Amino acid sequence: MELPFAESWKIKMVEPIRKSTRQEREQWLKEAHYNVFQLKSEQVYIDLITDSGTGAMSDRQWAGIMLGDESYAGASSFFKLKEVITRLTGFEYVIPTHQGRAAENVLFSYLVHEGDIIPGNSHFDTTKGHIESRKAIALDCTIDEARQTQLEIPFKGNVDPAKLEKALQEHHSRIPFIIVTITNNTAGGQPVSMQNLREVRNIADKYNKPVIFDSARFAENAYFIKTREEGYQDKSIKEITKEMFALADGMTMSAKKDGIVNMGGFIATRRQDWYEGAKGFCVQFEGYLTYGGMNGRDMNALAIGLDENTKFNNLETRIRQIEYLAKKLDEYGIPYQRPAGGHAIFVDAPKVLTHVPKEEFPAQTLTVELYLEAGIRGCEIGYLLADRDPVTRENRFNGLDLLRLAIPRRVYTDNHMNVIAAALKNVYDRRETITRGVRITWEAPLMRHFTVQLERL
Ligand code: F0G
């Protein structure tokens, strides 16, 4: 008999979690104004709000914590981190920051100016925020197929080369760089192929523009290249990683994802001029250059995390758990962005709650229902998150309306996946009875989803 698949780790430390009653959850969610960001973590049984900073560190990483060098300048922990980053990416210059958006802030302070246009594939919210706050434009050049949730293609996170080339022809002088997000979070944790990265590089070279990778989930992207793209089956994740980054000039990194640390980030680049230009902003916003926004101990843990998480076994364990959950949803007929992504399942809410009008926020309604059903906290990536049009102040209903179930790394077991799938099935089975959604009673002008107050209709 062939042996079944099992995790490439065993568990040394556990954290108790607590179930609640439906009555308790009704009360808590009402107090939270039907916004799951306003819940206390003790009120959550299985927390899928994000995979960012929520992973479990290994015993090696915890050992690294004890050996952290907290020297203000020249800490050995910085050089350890820098050595790993350079070995993995080929980038010689490294600036640590406290998280991914801080890396964006520091680098974009140097590179982005009013009137600029930055093409890319579904810029993450904070990336977009750091572009738009500088009165520049984030131009989405993702392939159209990414919007069809039921279409199954291997690299749904790709940049559309035709859209990118058109942008460069039309706005050449206004484009300081191209940014590619690997994996493409907003499109559903979907990977970008090596071939696509190569195409982007060729177009960039043709127009003499640099390329940045937003690399939060680069290791998961490398895993998909290895398992889905021809010619990469026999290459190691580290070899693929090196090959990917050879196609970029630099990277911003939220280390809270594929670095498997609770807090941290960095900029890395091969361009000395970028390093020289950005370093002043690091000192101004983050800290001195050999710690930026990080503790020495955290730089140690990150160095070890990056090395571990670019090993095939770790990634296989991770991605197969997402696939496991996806298979369960397939069994129950629940529609999600296909194929399953690297860090999450994105349920296509309007396809589930067909009676809830878009004005009543189907994905938020589904988020509410799932929490009430089982204390599982997902996150709306949809019409609420899309905010209003800055000019017309109308809600933006033109994108997808998804419930994201982000799976923290090395935290939950497949039994938890079974609970998630069953809870979702229970909601799905009574979908015909869910005819009304939620209404906004208070909202902030920007990034409203974190603080929005809602009522159930
Ligand atoms: N880029 C991508 C692709 C991200 O997914 C995130 C964060 C960031 C940049 C910003 O990094 O949080 O360290 O400042 N994504 C989290 C999420 C918050 O839940 O998807 P950060």
TrEMBL record:
Superkingdom to which the source organism belongs: Bacteria
Cofactors named for this entry: pyridoxal 5'-phosphate
Record carries keyword ATP-binding: no
Domain Aromatic amino acid beta-eliminating lyase/threonine aldolase, chain residue ranges per copy: 47-422
GO MF term (any one): tyrosine phenol-lyase activity
Residues that bear N6-(pyridoxal phosphate)lysine: K257
EC number: 4.1.99.2
PANTHER family hit by this protein: BETA-ELIMINATING LYASE-LIKE PROTEIN-RELATED, TRYPTOPHANASE
Family assignment from sequence similarity: Belongs to the beta-eliminating lyase family.
Name the UniProt record assigns to this protein: Tyrosine phenol-lyase
Gene: tpl
